[in-house]
Amino acid sequence: MSLPDALHILLVEDEPGDALLVQHTLRAASGGHCNVTWAGSLAEARERLAEQPMDLILLDLSLPDSAGLATVTAARNAARDTPVVVLTGHDDPEFALKVLEAGAQDYLVKGGFDGDALMRAMRHARVRAQLEARLTQSQQRLELALAGADLGLWDWHLPSGEITINARTVEMLGYPLAEFDSTADHWQGLVHPDDLTARQDARTAHLQGEQPFYEAEYRLHHRTGSWIWVFDRGRVVERDPYGAPLRMVGTLLDITERRSAEQALKESETKFRSYVESAPIAVLVTDADGHYQEVNSAAVALLGYSREQLLALTFDDIVPDRGRLAARSYFQRVKEEGRADGEYQLQRSDGALFWAAIHAVRLSDGRLMAFKQDVSERRRADQELRIAATAFESQEGMLVTDLHGAILRVNRAFCELTGYQPHEVIGHTPAILNSGRQPPSFYTEMWRQLERDGYWQGEIWNRRKNGDIYPEWLTITAVTGPEGGVTHYVGAFSDITDRKEAEERIRSLAFYDPLTGLPNRRLLHDRLRQALASSSRNSRHGALMFLDLDHFKTLNDTRGHDVGDQLLVEVARRIASCLRERDTVARMGGDEFVVMLEDLHSEPAVAAAQAEGVAEKIQQALAEPYRFNLPADRQDEPLEEEYHCTSSVGLSLFMENSDNLDELLKRSDVAMYQAKAAGRNTVRFFDPRMQAALEARAATEAELRRAADRNELRLHYQVQVDANHRVVGAEALLRWAHPSRGLVQPNDLIPLAEETGLIIPIGLWVLRSACEQLRRWQGHPATRQLTLAVNVSPRQFRQADFVQQVRTLLEESGTDPSRLKLELTESLVLHDIDDTIGKMRQLRGIGVNFSMDDFGTGYSSLSYLRQLPLDQLKIDRSFVRDLNSDPNDAAIVQTIISMGHILGLTVVAEGVETAAQQQFLVRNGCQIFQGFLFGEPQPIERFEQTALRQGALPYTSH
């Protein structure tokens, strides 16, 4: 390999043999294109370089007058632009790196290269020297550009904290370059304390890759003690192989003058804004598109928006729809002509409209400034003047009289309403219209109010020319003169015949039942309030009778609502026929009627007898046959049908002035339901004990709803044993630890929970608690084989997601499903046999066991027992109790046990209380026993202390 042109090469080598070898290698490799000059020392090399420029230096580092890295430095100083290739006997990579850092372009080990390697090294050295020269030129141009832009330059080596800066950077701070400490810590100390956090956040965001550049404006401490503002911008230019930043480069610009100018401008704007803000007229500034950018307090007050709300609006937003087109045209005129005036309707934040006089100008930056003032009052005054000219010819009848009441003028509507022509009434007083219905005192009071207030308004009856009397709404206004005295009266009136008729219809709808025409609940309340006051004042009893038709729903369902309505109308008529004129019958809705009897005897017993007599009379009347006309489309039935109806009546007496009308009605309602419970077609008086029981039940229900949240629910456990008295499991029984009533038993708790629907969340709590208890038992050898039976409510079992609920509880608790036994009643199973079997099989598939609870008390059929995936039959305690004394119970128990064996089911007997009972059961093949003989239901602590001691149940004969 050879170089393209002849090169002048200086070989600096003190060993002649090595020098000859290198020269020979060069001549052979270059084909004679290298002119080699030999120097034996560094001093001789300097002389040769002074005599003639060289293209390249081959340099040995061990010379008589120099050695090591200093030789490289000396050679570069002697010929700064000449590339150097070091020839040395040291084969050490670290030393080679130091040689290159000292300025050499390449590095060869003696004896380890041939001609081609030497030529490549020389060529690479020349190329690298050219690149370094270009880089130097580029750096010089950069320095010139930075100087022209007045920019400081910094180069930060992050691992070491060293920062390389140019002269302009320290000039900004008033330091000579040689005196400036260019470390990161020193630079940090120059930053104003208030700006440290923002500068650090900006730098961190860039270093973490969140921002492409690092940019920050902050203050630096000048050498004179003042502060200068700088704009600092840079970016990471080098990272390690793992992506961590190693080096950042950036520029620094002194922006102190710009910040000072900005501050001055800000102060000027602040003054201007204060003038605008204090202006008494609304000032608003928008951009060219109408978006509000500035508003003053007067604008906020005028438009009713907050300042923030206004700045989110446009000019269109405060203009009503119907005026938007004209307002936009005005807005465009301001932009084109530079200014414009006008009056436009605007809309406040509450929707209220007002008129505003607007003067707007276009500012130099293209924005628009508008001055707005509310001129609604002026426009309203103008409008009133225009209206006054036409108001007299309105649809209302109008007349003007003098101070003494003589008619001076009437309008066309007056003539149309009264039938009189102007010449027939002018000069007369309004008394010409008098109907005679109002007494003289009415007019006396009218004039007294006119003189006092200058105004009267009210309803009056007047007479037309043809004699018709009609109601009118009349307004009379006194007109005063400049001195304050009355000069005229103006009357305006309208015919309110239609309104009066509508009011009467509304009153009828509001207070009367539209079907029967009887008073409704509202009117009954009014009359009952009056009756209470009268009863209290006269010390005489009244009575409330709540009446409900028996089986009315059946009639509606079978014969339709039309027939039902016929019955209700006839019932209303018959009840009313049994009452005195002062009594009241009302329809409350549906088939419920209320009768209010007044002025009964002062003695309660006598009053009760009177009320009962009326109730029986009503019942007799209602019991008479009814004949209904059937719909015409029912051709297969007779046109008339006979129907018999009975009623249940609840009665309560009153003799008090009470505001609690609902309570009085409720007493009769309770008594009526008591009558229904007694078999219907009967009369019952209100029983305070029944009411107390209902209130107690309502209170208990409310407390039960909060029982779970208050941690008042408990589980007690009753042991189950085999024939050898070994504990095989337990049944979990719910208790309620009431804070005042103590432990509430299931007989009082479960029915209430079932009726109210609370059994669903309570049942879920029981299942969750049982699963958690089974999980605890699984952790101990003495209890891990126990089963736990849980009663499942029908409402709980019929939930669509019941199977998923059980699965979730088992999974969350980590309980072995085979240890859980769900007890179902026969009534639950029979409700929907297909759904029951489906749910049981799903749960049976994951290992859950099932027991038929209270077996024998329901419809015990082999046909469905064979279909159910049961594990146990549980003999009801009612059969176990008397099996030693009642042959029938003994036979039933034997049959149940035999049936269980035939079906392959375990038989459990509950309610075992005596040894004799257990012995009978054992003899007949019963496997599992539960009852007071073995243990009463106990809290878990006592259960585990007694029943589970050593895995056996302590047994004593009772």
How would you describe the overall organization of this protein?
- The protein is an alpha/beta fold.
- β6, α4 and β7 (106-109) form a beta-alpha-beta unit.
- α1 (16-30) packs across α5.
- The model is unreliable at 952-958 (pLDDT under 50).
Q: So what's the overall shape?
A: flat
Main sheet: which strands, in order across?
Answer: 30-31-33-34-35-36-37-38
Low-confidence stretches: 952-958
Estimated helix fraction: 40-55%
Radius of gyration: 55 Å
Helical stretch tally: 34
Which terms would index this structure?
five-stranded parallel sheet, 34 helices, alpha/beta, eight-stranded mixed β-barrel, 38 strands, 958 residues, disordered C terminus
Task: Map the helices and strands.
Elements: E1 7-12, H1 16-30, E2 34-39, H2 42-51, E3 56-60, E4 62-63, E5 66-67, H3 69-78, E6 84-88, H4 93-102, E7 106-109, H5 115-148, E8 151-157, E9 162-165, H6 167-173, H7 184-190, H8 196-207, E10 214-221, E11 227-239, E12 245-254, H9 256-277, E13 282-286, E14 292-295, H10 297-303, H11 307-311, H12 324-337, E15 339-347, E16 353-362, E17 368-374, H13 376-391, E18 397-402, E19 407-410, H14 412-418, H15 422-425, H16 440-453, E20 455-463, E21 469-480, E22 486-495, H17 497-511, H18 521-538, E23 542-549, H19 552-559, H20 561-577, E24 584-589, E25 592-597, H21 604-623, E26 626-629, E27 640-643, E28 647-654, H22 661-677, E29 683-685, H23 688-707, E30 713-721, E31 727-738, E32 742-744, H24 746-756, H25 759-778, E33 787-791, H26 794-797, H27 802-813, E34 820-825, H28 826-831, H29 833-845, E35 849-855, H30 862-865, E36 872-875, H31 877-881, H32 887-902, E37 906-910, H33 915-923, E38 928-930, H34 940-946
Helix pairs in contact: 1-5, 2-3, 19-20, 25-27, 27-29
